Amino acid sequence: MSTTTSTDHHVKTLGVLGAGQMGGGIAQVSAMAGLTVRVFDAFPGAIDKCKAVHAKSLAKLVEKGKLSQEAATAASGRISFVNTLDALTGCDWLVEAVIEDVKIKKDLLSKLAAMYPDESVVLATNTSSISITDLATAAGKTAHRVVGMHFFNPVPLMQLVEVIPAMQTTPQVIDRTIALATAMGKTPLRANDRAGFISNRVLMPMINEAFYAWMEGVAEPEAIDGIMKLGCNFPMGPLRLADFIGLDTCCHIMNVLADGLNNDRYRPCPLLKQLVTAGRLGDKTGRGVYAYPSK
Ligand SMILES: NC(=O)c1ccc[n+]([C@@H]2O[C@H](COP(=O)([O-])OP(=O)(O)OC[C@H]3O[C@@H](n4cnc5c(N)ncnc54)[C@H](O)[C@@H]3O)[C@@H](O)[C@H]2O)c1
Questions:
Q1: Which entry of 83, 119, 189, 214 is 20 to 30 Å from 9 by CA?
Q2: Poorest-confidence range of 8-12, 184-188, 237-241?
Q3: Are 144 and 126 part of one and the same domain?
Q4: What pLDDT score does 295 carry?
Q5: Is 126 among the residues known to form the active site?
Q6: How far is the CA of 230 from the centre of ligand 1 (A)?
Q7: Centre of ligand 1 from the C-alpha of residue 2, in Å
Q8: Whose CA is nearest to atom 11 of ligand 1?
Q9: What is the pTM (predicted TM-score) of this model?
Q10: Active-site hit among 57, 129, 162, 199
Q11: Residue whose CA is at the smallest distance from ligand 1 atom 38
Q12: Which of 41, 96, 99, 164 has most ligand 1 atoms within 8 Å of its beta carbon, as the pocket-test mutant?
């Protein structure tokens, strides 16, 4: 169902937890949409890296004529970085984008629920696969204000925000999430809280199948990707995309699908698992299916 709404999101100051690829991107698009943004990360190195990524990304948007220099400077000025959770006090919406670890996410969500007794403060999660209903239980009595707000990588360029209500989420929180994503210039589309939601339920088994095709000698990676690009009009082939996402993440999501849908046909392909064991995780380690010597 396509979803736009006139409901106001009532957000002025947005808190982002995690200054990685996704948290940094969410912070940038929020600041570009005029929100004041505070970014928290537990690791100082992540904050330095995030600042550098923002500078580069905003400069690129200016260079391409998609943003004026004034708007880029103003957006950058609206983002501040903090290294304690307490320094996030005063935000009226929070998006967590820390690593895909259910224990860490639940721990943060329960701390946030305690820090923010005002139930109008929404606790959104950018998880790509963990059950929103399960994460929401960490907010105890205020589980109804937890929602999945799934952005795509790279956030400044990708249009979609997949909106996933937990079983506990109220319709009002869903409407406000849709309104906020729209105000950020994104297109929100709803999915229900089943393993992989829609995006990874459909995408990941295709990527996994591409690894099977390679393992079984149907074709080499260049041919598999070439055929899918030209034949299906994909901007990049499934194996190249797996390197971009991270082969470890692909494996993790396949296991979430297999467990959540109770079906072993979703288990990661043995070749995919073997590459991960060998440390070939994709772009981030300089080698996955393909080699990236410059990274
Ligand atoms: N990479 C993608 O393509 C993609 C797409 C959509 C959603 N996601 C989801 O977004 C989330 C973040 O992914 P990412 O790719 O940005 O990962 P990342 O590794 O780039 O960033 C994660 C950040 O979390 C920080 N962190 C770890 N533990 C923390 C803690 N306890 N408190 C605060 N910060 C902590 C790390 O320092 C790091 O900066 C994950 O849930 C992931 O599944 C990723």
A1: 83
A2: 8-12
A3: yes
A4: 72
A5: no
A6: 32
A7: 28
A8: 97
A9: 0.91
A10: 162
A11: 20
A12: 99
Rounded to whole angstroms, how far apart are CA atoms 44 and 19?
A: 10
User: Structural domain of residue 123, as residue ranges?
Assistant: 13-190
CATH code: domain of residue 236: 1.10.1040.10
Cα Rg of the chain (Å, integer) = 19
Write down the catalytic residue from 9, 54, 144, 150: 150
What is the 8-class DSSP label of residue 268? P
Quick one: 222 and 153 in the same domain? no
Selecting among 126, 199, 200, 208, the annotated active-site residue is 200
Last residue of a domain, one of 171, 190, 209: 190
The reply to whether 162 belongs to the active site is yes
Together in a domain, 150 and 268? no
Residue 40 CA to residue 38 CA, distance in Å, equals: 7
User: What's the mean per-residue pLDDT of the chain?
Assistant: 95
Asked whether residue 6 carries a pLDDT value surpassing 60, the answer given is no
User: Which strands make up the sheet holding 146-151, listed edge to edge?
Assistant: 79-82, 36-40, 13-17, 93-96, 122-125, 146-151, 160-165, 187-190
Peptide bond preceding 44: is omega within 30 degrees of 0, i.e. cis?
no
Reported as a single tens digit per residue, the pLDDT across 7-62 is 688 899 999 999 999 999 999 999 999 999 999 999 989 999 999 999 999 999 99
140 and 122 belong to one structural domain: yes
Say how many Å lie between the CA of residue 253 and the centre of ligand 1.
14
List of residues 6+ apart from 292 with CB closer than 8 A: 243, 283, 286
